[in-house]
Design brief:
Strand content: under 5%
Radius of gyration: 21 Å
Number of strands: 0
Helix content: 55-70%
Structural class: mainly alpha
Number of helices: 5
Largest sheet: none
Length: 181
């Protein structure tokens, strides 16, 4: 039964196909988008990631990451998140802090920016699913992107200020140990 003009426009996806094909396409596209976004961030030179840049700099309301600890209980669930570096040869694993050396901490901080960018990109491209999905499924795909990527972004935003503080302390320690008495 068709809607009459008085009921308003019917919103249809740009591409039409059967439900089974849509589900298969959704899985394939999520897989490909994940690889594409990760590669896009991975191919950027690590030195191009500036923790004081607009996207990555800590915001006052985050209170050094404490807001994520107090209200979102990040310490309880962040160990459950996978480390996306493993599939990439030469990827920088961020699951555990392996050193307090200044050079390592600097790289870790930049790599946390890279990880955050990857997850923001995945959220940003999620509206592509409206092309072949009905609108409510497109909204579900955006919700999926948020649910799957915000925890990773939150973890990076929680960790980075703490590591910046650790790096500052290490630099101070090195500076004071190299100063003559």
């Amino acid at each position: 039964m068709e809607k009459s003009c008085s009921e308003g426009p019917v919103i249809m996806p740009v591409v039409s196909m059967g439900v089974a094909w849509i589900v298969i396409l959704d899985f394939i596209v999520w897989f490909l988008l994940s690889i594409f976004c990760a590669l896009a961030a991975f191919k950027r030179n690590v030195d191009s990631f500036r923790p004081d840049g607009f996207l990555y700099r800590p915001r006052r309301w985050e209170r050094g990451g404490r807001v994520y600890e107090k209200y979102l209980f990040v310490k309880a669930w962040k160990p459950l998140l996978p480390d996306g570096a493993k599939p990439f040869k030469g990827g920088f694993e961020k699951k555990n802090l392996r050193s307090r050396d200044a050079a390592y901490l600097e790289e870790f901080i930049k790599e946390s920016c890279r990880a955050e960018l990857t997850h923001w990109l995945l959220i940003f491209v999620s509206p592509v699913f409206f092309i072949w999905n009905p609108p409510f499924v497109g909204l579900i795909m955006i919700a999926y992107a948020l649910v799957m990527n915000l925890p990773c972004i939150i973890t990076q935003r929680y960790n980075r200020p703490r590591f910046i503080t650790m790096l500052d302390r290490e630099r101070q320690r090195l500076k004071s140990s190299s100063t003559p008495c």
